[in-house]
Amino acid sequence: MAAGVNRYKTDLREMTFTLVEQFGFNEIAGKAPFEAWGADEAKAVLESTYRFVREVLGPINATADREGCRLENGQVKTPKGFKEAWKALYEAGYKTLSLSPERGGQGAPKMLQVLVEEMLSGSNTAFNMYPGLASGAAELLDHCATPEQKKTYVERMLNGTWAGTMCLTEAQAGSDVGAVKTSARKAADGTYRIQGTKVFISAGEHDLTENIVHLVLARVDGAPAGTRGLSLFIVPKLRVGADGKPGAPNDVACSSIEHKMGINGSATCVLNFGDNDDCRGELVGTVENAGISQMFKMMNGARIAVGLQGVALASAAYQCALEYAKDRKQGASFKQWKDASAPRVPLLEHPDIRRMLLDAKAHTEGMRMLVVKLASHGDKARQLAGSDDEKAAYHRGQVELLTPLVKGYTSEEAPRLTALMLQVFGGAGYVKDHPVEQYCRDAKIFSIYEGTTHIQAMDLVGRKLGQGGGAHLQQFMSDIGGFVDAHRGDATFGKAVETLAGAQEALLQSAMAFMGWSQGEKVHLIPLAANRFLTMMSQLAVGWLLLDAGVRAEGARAKLPEGHPDRAFYEGKRYSALWYARNVLPQIEAQSKMTALEDESPMEISEAAFVAG
Amino acid sequence: MAAGVNRYKTDLREMTFTLVEQFGFNEIAGKAPFEAWGADEAKAVLESTYRFVREVLGPINATADREGCRLENGQVKTPKGFKEAWKALYEAGYKTLSLSPERGGQGAPKMLQVLVEEMLSGSNTAFNMYPGLASGAAELLDHCATPEQKKTYVERMLNGTWAGTMCLTEAQAGSDVGAVKTSARKAADGTYRIQGTKVFISAGEHDLTENIVHLVLARVDGAPAGTRGLSLFIVPKLRVGADGKPGAPNDVACSSIEHKMGINGSATCVLNFGDNDDCRGELVGTVENAGISQMFKMMNGARIAVGLQGVALASAAYQCALEYAKDRKQGASFKQWKDASAPRVPLLEHPDIRRMLLDAKAHTEGMRMLVVKLASHGDKARQLAGSDDEKAAYHRGQVELLTPLVKGYTSEEAPRLTALMLQVFGGAGYVKDHPVEQYCRDAKIFSIYEGTTHIQAMDLVGRKLGQGGGAHLQQFMSDIGGFVDAHRGDATFGKAVETLAGAQEALLQSAMAFMGWSQGEKVHLIPLAANRFLTMMSQLAVGWLLLDAGVRAEGARAKLPEGHPDRAFYEGKRYSALWYARNVLPQIEAQSKMTALEDESPMEISEAAFVAG
Fold first, then answer.
1. Could you give the ipTM of this predicted complex?
2. CATH second-level architecture of A163-295?
3. Of the partner residues B334, B523, B611, the one whose CB lies closest to the CB of residue A572
4. Structural domain spans, chain A
């Protein structure tokens, strides 16, 4: 592998289709609070981002994977090129695109920001975690902090002067956040003394910025057990003086970093707070025990960001596999397989290669649509708040409902799809000469951090389905129903739309089953079937969005003259939709039937019967 | 991670159940050619192997993964401990267990050998590739070579003095073996001059033995194109003198080794033959252009060995995840999730953890059964040849039919299952402190080497289904039918047996569809649906075997007094079978319906519509 060469590719035509043609960027842009934006501006940003990642982030992705991070005397050295990339990224302004101008941003809709983020993550997943966490922490403070705190921290975190982290996990408290033991003792000056050890802290220590602002979940002495007793603290790596300048080191130490399967450029740290009983933290805002709800301000964004990482690597893997399949000749056409002297053809002519590529194409596009849809609901909610509160509430509800799908589904699909694209390469995919094996390794963490898939599934079935008296789900279903009614008779997609309708009915059956279980003696069936439901509902959503895209694309294609380059692009949308409708949507009915079996075997089997002695 | 500590675990009770109670080791052993064997001897071998791998191979697995192989001046240095392990392995005799005594072996049934191999591969996948290839190459020569060649090579390769390789792949000829360009020119002395470059050669160069015997596929000048024109050559790394001792170096050079995602302890080499036009090879046997059928003698064994690697790592991952789930406390019981002060419980009490573990338990056991079944058919075929040729032919047919299932299914499931077990660990699974992330990386190659999954699938639908006029498939189906008839009314499994019958019917429908396509205008549907069919048929086989095991276990359990330790073990078999019947077998019907849709979208979509510019 040549070090320092960009290997990241994406498809901007696909992105603008999703953004503009499918999710109506122009209906959102041009109006407050997005006055300055239109499709042309969005395209320019996408093009510029793509140039940036090919020049700056892509070339240091594989090298950073090999080099990893080093811990020397308590300080983390990030891989070669990361410092320069950080500087270039903030100079270019890609992280502040959707911030309002008064906060130094450019006021763009989030639906554009997510596509920019896809490229940042896809070209260098590990690198983009540092600015991603900085932004997330800054946004949290912007929502929850006191005016004074905002003044001290937020601007510097948004412009890249300082970085940020979220410190939840402890050795005994991973998915079980309520078990956090890190303590906070109020001092006479109103600050707190923090004491405890946090693990798996991404970007917990590094050399990219002059300071790092840790947001630390801790329990004030005497606070209740569980999540209700957690408070959130600002704990800077270097204490901040009255002049706003970083000064003496706080009592925070990075005692080790993890050696991982992937995302090796991202420092995953063990952080010790208060080993010398002198770790000073400020309460975020003014009220104790509000930490968990404050943290969730950041967590929802982080979950969407992980969903984007999934889309990003699935897409990157698809693009590199497609390129390889076009270039690489291997074997004769299957039509001439008996003729030893038949000419060798590109991999792309082989049916099984085409099947795998179309699988990845359909899934990648559909998952991207899901993320852009979620972001567009957020934009519309913001836009309509105050003028049409009912509609705004609908959009907010869809954000709530779709967040676990975006995080849960894409993070499970990304490892599958990257591995499938590795298979397209054959043995070449297993070696580091090609980027795809790194994509596989990097992608495997997505289903774990920021809440495992099961946590997403329980969020969906335990909270989101019933939220607003079930209104979000009903509206989601009703949106699909409207699509089905409108396109049932479509010449190209009619049969696929019927499949969608059948899948929707099957999902409803399962949703009813969950409701029944929650009220009776079968509560244990809920966690057993939750992941399956998350998958089914995500597939329904993705199938719907792919069909919606297909219908729009067919309409657009019909208006184009023969030979127009977009005709092939629109044709691709047709087959993404048809392939998914024929190969994925039918699984929903089968999964629904399996759900109805109410299999309790995982609970019935005794611990001893799992064996291992 | 402490270097040099064994982290491999298996379950010998499970192995002896499969070997003795399910597949009737005692009906095969004790009779020619396995006179010396019985269940006690088999158990002793399994126990001794397990001791060996825990002491010798397990402790150098993670260290070898980190260290990898080094190429220095054309010589490969294997990781620390590999040389000593090689010596200890051959002293202990584990590689020659199923060889006949007259060839220095112990005359054991293959069905025992496969379980020994599972432990060798599971404890150190990369290491076991070196002796595995040596054995495979020796067996090939034992079948195909001249008496003189056998005398020179085979014994030394079987006793570990020399190693061996199989050299098929070239840069332009991977799955497309017929495109091999390496040439062979007959010299005056009857030997051949070999010229060409082979890539991805596992164990192609190393420091474990004084010599390496390469088996090289090449094309004699003037031979036909394609696989029909390939011959197989013995090309020793060091030329062998009349005294049988290795002497001057042959003209074979290792020019580079690959940097891979996993199996880092296994040297994957580029080998240049005849750079100085002085690479001497001997034709295997006496006939040119017989290379591909000779190579397949080794290839079938190699495919089963890869299937075993899949079982081995799935099982190893299950065992370590189960241990972790028993030890690690996280979160309150789901029954008390609202109570923040409820005690923390082991992961194993959480429903979703149990679901994932039972998934892995059922799949691992069922895949192991599939391999042992295949091996037992081979043993019986050997035992009955000459005395009952009709039965022997039946058994040989099942070996043929099951080989692509064993290779294809386990190699796809192993990456899924190791990743699922990583999920049980949560974030801890992603770091190198635990063995599971290495299992994931190592397992990803299985679906590629020794014939990709699609090659297995095409072997199944294109050759094996129709072999013997369809007899193998009919007999396989009739065996399942017999089981269904016998156990349809079973109190515990009756409903699951009905599901099995439905799945069998669905598979038959798909098999009929393939037959129809092969005779008409829809030949392209065969490669499009082949992988799906391979999965379906494998699932049917595994579901059947798990139910068969379940029935036997229930019978055995009923005879045991309360409190007998085997009662829990047998209970585990019940739930493996029920879980699979309720969560996997129903998918077969859904997949069959999808097959019937005859989706041609991957062929209809134009190359341009895949996009990527």
1. 0.97
2. Beta Barrel (2.40)
3. B611
4. 12-144, 163-295, 470-598
